[in-house]
Amino acid sequence: MSRPTPLSGFPEWLPRQRAVELHVLDRLRRTFELYGFASLETRAVEPMDQLLRKGETSKEVYVLRRLQEVAQGADAGLGLHFDLTVPFARFVLENAGRLHFPFRRYQIQKVWRGERPQEGRYREFLQADIDVVDRDALPFHYEVELPLVIGDALGGLPLGQEAGTLPVVIQVNNRKVCEGFYRGLGLTDTEAALRAVDKLDKIGPAKVAGLLTATAGATDAQARACLALAEISSADGSFVDRVRALRVVDPLLDEGLAELAQVMEAAAAHAPGLCRAELKIARGLDYYTGTVYETQLRGYERFGSICSGGRYDNLASAGADRYPGVGLSIGVTRMLGLLFGAGALTASREVPTAVLVALADEGARGACQRTAAALRGRGIATEVAPSAAKFGRQIRFAQRRGIPFVWFPGADGEPDTVKDIRSGAQDAADAATWQPPAADLRPEVLAP
Amino acid sequence: MSRPTPLSGFPEWLPRQRAVELHVLDRLRRTFELYGFASLETRAVEPMDQLLRKGETSKEVYVLRRLQEVAQGADAGLGLHFDLTVPFARFVLENAGRLHFPFRRYQIQKVWRGERPQEGRYREFLQADIDVVDRDALPFHYEVELPLVIGDALGGLPLGQEAGTLPVVIQVNNRKVCEGFYRGLGLTDTEAALRAVDKLDKIGPAKVAGLLTATAGATDAQARACLALAEISSADGSFVDRVRALRVVDPLLDEGLAELAQVMEAAAAHAPGLCRAELKIARGLDYYTGTVYETQLRGYERFGSICSGGRYDNLASAGADRYPGVGLSIGVTRMLGLLFGAGALTASREVPTAVLVALADEGARGACQRTAAALRGRGIATEVAPSAAKFGRQIRFAQRRGIPFVWFPGADGEPDTVKDIRSGAQDAADAATWQPPAADLRPEVLAP
Q: Which residue windows does the record flag with biased composition (Low complexity) (chains A, B) (predicted)?
């Protein structure tokens, strides 16, 4: 077999990068569980008719066939899921009678999209989603709570931000603000207006104005008003007065402004600086009906949003049953791929091992394994050296992997000693009681 | 949308089952890391030519195509991996220059096989693998260590076994014993003999004898000797004398017996009862060259092996570089699916939540969220009630999910109280200091 080469769009992390990813995933999971979200995994495949319900993403689906079926030309009718929202909506409908509502779940899984690969865009990538769905009606307060969960979950990323500053900013808007405003302006095709404004960052205000005229039937004055709304941005509740100053009146606009103000107020109390009202945020997907979210990494705003979502009312319904929800999805692979590419994150070591037990001769392996077992029994990850090489070589084995401690069994009744190979300090130690510093127990994630 | 139905062969767990799975996976991961195995994930897809290298599994591969390519009839040349061994071997070859050997990794991922679904056999399932690979040569002692890791990892399963008894038995054999024995008998096609003996449990000794004659060129006496070897089974080192009594002499047989005796001796010292020498264990795959393992759940032997593997020398090689290894693979979905089907395992609750904060009126939500945040800050998973319903209804909300505690904010300067809804006991409590019993902090896994 010749040496294989990577597949474009299918990233794989080396052990040290994977250690960073695991640390991030552990923190996400721990936070989600502290808020009462239950873990859920759905199968990787969905029937093609489910996946193609929303025409715009159809081109990205990977279709699956069993090898024999390919030969026969038959179609398995299955494809790989391209997000976790569609499978979650299907799971809720399928199991509604066996779930308790409101249902809070987190879901951390790979998804696949057959898009052209480019920086920060993959064909296989990991998403971490939280959603709350309820039966019939979903109280608004979940739209307030969910960004706080994300703030706690991503709050520990060591991105070199100033002390006391969160590494993320969640940009918040509310569909009711936009739709109410457009309606109050006299525009009837509010969806077309939203789609035009959604392109603001990509094509700029002049072209968006043109689109508003061409696709949403806006006059020049209406287009200017839409752009004025999209310019409004504030770190506090002052956005309300700025919208009022545009003198558009609509009951849906009032409702949206009140909701958005509540999100901003709760976020300011929970984690100052976490949220920002950003009235240009539209989100491409048409199923959002209330609050919408996008998330930027401080200092890496050029990456775009690494965590997005919103309130939806019509995603999961069967007959008369409706399951409205609100959710956010973290693009874990996208975020880490960009941070790795920028050299922004690494791990203190590439193995879980905290201690390497040195081996004087192969006959001592049994005794060394018992020493290792004693350390493991107290939660200290330990390996025994692979061979009875010279001690210098065994120490280099530890150094290359970042293992901080080497344990030397005492010869002839001498006590064992343990050496911190970073400082060189070597002390007598008992495997039944010795404890490494807490920071050395597991790999740490840090800015290099 | 009509209510969706399950897809045969693609299992999905309900939240309480998923809580069991998470608990098992946490224990596996924790154990693997204590032994210094680093986490690794590989992409879900491999080039078809990689997946089809071993002809026997080709029919099980799921082929992937992007939707447009299907329309064009083009072939993407990619398929979903059907195990974690082939991708791991590919990863090692691809990244050999960036890994440190011996390389210990664990890998917990879904795999896919387009087989006909039946009880305990799935089209999508989770595997948990550990392997140690080295460059050029792999010391034998890893073949001794790996079953001990599996014993520790699966040792905590509460399967109702007697106190002090492990829930699993690892059946061990060594390819060198079989091949040496067959060679010493005068058989030249030892692979054919191995394939015949591998069918013993399925077709019985008479038919195996027939196969040995027909496919391995054995005489009746040679076939009887092969079956006599396969009958040998012992919980200690006594298998050696029983093999010697068959009076077959071969240096490879001697080597194999010595190795198998070492595995048995180390296992007896580490975890009495964990391993059993079982000389009929052959393992279907032809790449094993030393120790082979199969694992049974005590009391559920009818399930067959839930964790198998062995030593391999020729799986990963490119040009002159060889990477021999030894590994074991736990069929997590298979094991849990069978245990769930037998009603053998459940979780104490279906949510991570330990405390529900009751809500007297919607205006108190902010204060309740602060109470929840104080509890979460000390590692206690907490939710605030979804609405200010009557307290009886809020308590039923907790009961239905298995949440053990309901927290009642004190009215008018009264202290808060917390109620254990199982016992009904209700006591004054302070969110800054109150701690639930350790067993209530997370869902517990138990026999129902």
A: 425-440
